[in-house]
Write a structure and sequence with these properties.
Elements: E1 2-10, H1 24-33, E2 38-44, H2 50-60, E3 63-71, E4 77-81, H3 85-96, H4 106-109, E5 113-115, E6 121-124, H5 137-146, E7 150-153, H6 163-166, E8 178-180, E9 196-198, E10 215-218, H7 223-232
Parallel strand pairs: 1-2, 2-3, 8-9
Antiparallel strand pairs: 1-10, 3-4, 4-7, 5-6
Helix pairs in contact: 1-2
Length: 237
């Protein structure tokens, strides 16, 4: 088994709410400074910065989990973790057709920068990324699994986009094996029972990336091992 210190919910400068300093290179560099071994870049409704994040993670010796934070029709935030960057990009392109056709206003919402591994701006995403898809929580959970990914509701106990705040319960028919819980707020035990519980920063600024105080034990250092860890859930206590 290998113990990996992790932060599995990070926003790059592609997310309009993310700082422009959250470049893929800066994220990976800060993760190394803070003693992390495994990170996930999970921008809002897009995976366009994952190729650069992968290149930077490889250069720093970090394990990158390709991800996104998707907003469902109910406006629940749902993390999707995928086996490869290419599979995340494919899902991202699929999702684009289901997003509202609204243009970003950088002066109001923030920049949406697509970067390379050297912090060069390759493009600016025109479509506003923080809207809700026209797909339900149930539909997106199914679609993520069909894309060989794992769906994980984000910060279920925090904010209007948290599953427990928004719906008031975890739908059992979704067969969720993992949830993300915000450590700064209380959370009932029942939604966590039998599920892997992730604690991450949801960082939008470099300084908010977690220190090395949350770890996961995996049989090997790989994306596949992490996804299987999520799929198994955990024994109820």
């Amino acid at each position: 088994m290998e113990t990996l210190f992790c932060d599995l919910h990070l926003h790059s400068c592609l997310s309009p709410c993310g700082s422009d300093d959250m470049t893929p290179s800066n994220i990976c560099g800060m993760a190394m400074i803070k003693g992390l071994n495994m990170i996930a870049v999970t921008d809002h409704n897009s995976a366009r910065n994952l190729p650069a994040a992968q290149a930077c993670a490889d250069a720093y010796g970090l394990l990158l989990i390709p991800g996104m934070e998707i907003t469902t029709r109910e406006e629940v935030h749902l993390l999707g973790y995928f086996p490869t960057v290419d599979q995340a990009l494919e899902f991202s392109e699929f999702l684009r057709a289901h997003m509202p056709k609204k243009k970003n206003k950088p002066s109001f919402f923030g920049n949406q920068l697509v970067m390379d591994e050297d912090d060069n701006v390759l493009a600016e995403e025109d479509e506003l990324l923080i809207g809700a898809a026209d797909l339900s929580l149930g539909e997106l959970t199914k679609l993520i699994r069909e894309a060989e990914g794992v769906p994980v509701p984000a910060h279920i106990n925090r904010g209007s986009n948290g599953l427990l705040i928004n719906l008031g319960f975890v739908p059992e028919d979704l067969r969720l094996t993992a949830v993300e819980v915000w450590r700064g707020l209380p959370c009932a035990h029942t939604p966590q029972e039998g599920r892997v519980v992730l604690h991450s920063s949801d960082a939008h600024y470099l300084g908010d990336i977690m220190e090395a105080d949350v770890s996961i034990d995996l049989p090997e250092r790989s994306v596949g091992a992490f996804l299987e860890y999520l799929r198994r859930g955990r024994p109820a206590v």
